[in-house]
Amino acid sequence: MRELFAKKGEEPSLAFGGQALIEGVMMRSRTHMVMCVRKPNNEILTNVEKINSLCERYRVLRVPFLRGIVALLETLYLGVKGLYFSANVLVEGQEQGEKFSSMHLAIAIIGALGLTAFFFVVPFLLTSLFNLTGVVFNVVEAVVRLSIFLLYLVLVSMWGEFKRVLQYHGAEHKAINTYEAGVTFNVENAKRFSRLHPRCGTSFLFIVVLVSIVLFSIMPDFGFAARLAYRLLLIPVIGGISYELLRLSGRHRDSKVMRIFTLPGLAFQRLTTREPSEDMIEVAVKAVEEVSKLSGS
Fold it and tell me: Total domain count for the chain?
């Protein structure tokens, strides 16, 4: 899951993001990715890698909406790489296992694209079984999409082996919320904060659903095949717009309107996070501390 965060009183920065790993937490800045993983012997292994973001190298990619597409692709790459690293630590019991290769990335991208296509195409096909048109069709389609997404979250949250990842997700949010609040940054303070965060990737997915309703409603109706093609071809556009809205919600996070806007995403996070143990929070705090030092903040 991905978040954008900054200290209290500062504008949230896209330089920071995080994700739960297997027995660990990954935090990233514009220049570094920090992965902290709890080893089988209970030690915390910290791995730091430099990041050479495309947006930092090419100014044209920083254009609004386009930067969102690039950020999502980079987030996918770094997220999968982080999960692969943490799996190696747990399975191999060492820092270096089999190296993350282009083949592993290709498999991850194909899987992500397949899952994304499923969430866009299947709801459309199911809604097409009813005699609906216009905005009503798009709203019903969105309800079906949300229902499938909700069922997916429920099934994942019930998977016993995945519970600890959800706890680390909660620990990640607690650490970020503590950092944003500007209080003394330690485990004891982090325990008091919420495991929910308004700019989590779960909230981003809810924004995607809202954007898709609007975008599909304004597209001309050239028949079934064209409408199905829209669902696939416009995925990058929907992602870019949703990214900008997530960025906007971070900039105006104290606004009442934005608080209402992010409520559904927070509700979904009750399924994608679990209350972490103190040792999990310790891992998340260490990851935030390390990436903060490297970024000079």
Answer: 1
